[in-house]
Amino acid sequence: DAGVIQSPRHEVTEMGQEVTLRCKPISGHNSLFWYRQTMMRGLELLIYFNNNVPIDDSGMPEDRFSAKMPNASFSTLKIQPSEPRDSAVYFCASSGPELGRSPLHFGNGTRLTVT
Amino acid sequence: RKEVEQDPGPFNVPEGATVAFNCTYSNSASQSFFWYRQDCRKEPKLLMSVYSSGNEDGRFTAQLNRASQYISLLIRDSKLSDSATYLCVVNSAGGSYIPTFGRGTSLIVHP
User: Fold this and answer.
1) Distance (Å, whole) CA B84 – CA B87
2) Pick among B52, B64, B97 to test the A interface (most A CBs inside 10 A)
C-alpha cells in the first residue's frame, strides 16, 4: 500500500520566494495534518483537515502561510513570501476513520531551506 | 504547564538493558494515546497505541495512568536498533481533536 506521499523531498529557495509543498494522503483516510518540525520547537501542528474541510488552523504562524485541500487525495501548503525562519522539515500526515482515535501516518517530509 | 511533556534524555543504556520513559499530559479529557519512534532525519512512525488496560508488543509495553495523567513505554532487552527518539502523542478532546506531540525522548543503546 502506498503511504502518504510528499513532494518535493528537499526545497532550497531564496527569501521572498513562494514555496508550495504537496501531499497525497493514504487513500480512504479522511483527516490530513500539516506539521512543522524544528530542533527548537519540535513537532508543531500547523493545520488539519477533516473530509477536506479545514478544522483548526490556529497553528499557522501567520498570513504568509496558507493550506488547501481541494479534494480527498491532495493538499498543498504554501508559504508566500518565504523567510529564513521558515526553514524546517514539513510533514504531512493522514489518519482515518475515527477522528481523534486513529493514529497518524506520516509522509517522508519536505526539508525546506530558505536562504 | 505544557500540554505534553517528556524528559528529552538522552537515555544512554547498554544492550540488553530495560529502559522506561514517561510522558505527562495536562488535558484530563484526552482520549487516545500513542507512542511513535523517529529515527534521525526520518518521519515519525507509529510504534504502538496505548490502551487503558495496558498493552504489550514483543519487547515493548505501554501503560496509561489516567489518575496521574501519564503514559509510559517500557523497552526490555534493548537492542542497538532501538536507538531513536520516542515521541508520545496525546489526542485532546472537546470540539476538535488535535494530536499533540511531546518533544521526544532520545534513547541511545550502546554495545
Assistant:
1) 10
2) B97
